[in-house]
Here is the input.
Amino acid sequence: MFKVPPISADRLPALLRAMPKAELHIHIEGSLEPELIFALAERNGLTLPYASVEELRSAYAFTNLQSFLDIYYAGASVLLHEQDFYDMARAYLGRAARDNVLHAEIFFDPQTHTERGVAMETVINGLHRACRDARTELGISATLILCFLRHLSEESAFETLEQAQPLLDKIVGVGLDSSEVGHPPEKFARVFARCRELGLRLVAHAGEEGPPAYIWSALDVLKVERIDHGVQAVHDAALMQRLAQDRVALTVCPLSNQKLRVFPDLADHNLGKLLDAGLAATVNSDDPAYFGGYINDNFTQVFAATHLTARHAYQLAFNSFEASFAGNADKRVWEHKLKETFERCVEHDY
Ligand code: ADE
Ligand code: ZN
Here is the structure.
């Protein structure tokens, strides 16, 4: 492992912004900024229950996960046509590239759209075309992860998988999101087993608001390769050991945790504890349009609030590449660029 040189605290924010990174936990519907919601509503002849962008933004005051999800699903209802999905994803990828994201694995919630009569191919083709164009126009690599909504039934998840089957070459894996408590991973054991047979990579939200038991079953029943959030793992020492030993990555989202009151304050966030216990934590934005910041805002704000160091910064960026579903050749190139950025920083060269 690269020996991270000492870097003073005042130079850390610039380094965090400049360092290359992967984003592994971003819900594309959560990147829909109020301005784009209004523009798409107008383009599609829809009337929103808010008079202005400002009025919509002022409704973003959440008390827990469910209070956010209610407004997030309402915002996504302006997406009707392939071009709408394209515009949303292309806007996110442009923003991510400015934060020096080299690779993004993008979640999408097809049931939010198919339940409103939008075809699966409309959703996937729009998002996929944006990923393809971003590669050539921005040099950013991007793949798609289809998420099943856990508040809906197993039957609905199977139906969703069937609709996606002709388009599986356009996605890298599947995930599990939405309301966690009361919807344990076991509910989707058979769907995930089928996805595994189909060669899809597997991830799941677990331990965001839900108990450590949900993380155990995501690992042992669903057989996922990464845990999205996972911050409740600190309440179970045996689980911490398992996650560290198996290098199971956690895709942590500090500003989301702050806004949804998973922690009383950003200063109380346990990211440092997870890293110091040897877990492969990463930093991500979750739903940046709703939680007040993209990936670099998540890095700079959690570092400022919890006094993490350059060594933690390197580890987080390294983990993000290592835990991605990209090939080994890409990972080595990105990790080399990461090392170079740290060396340049020591030489005061950027
Ligand atoms: N869907 C979008 N953001 C989510 C989150 N933070 N947790 C669960 N489901 C989500
Ligand atoms: Zn999430």
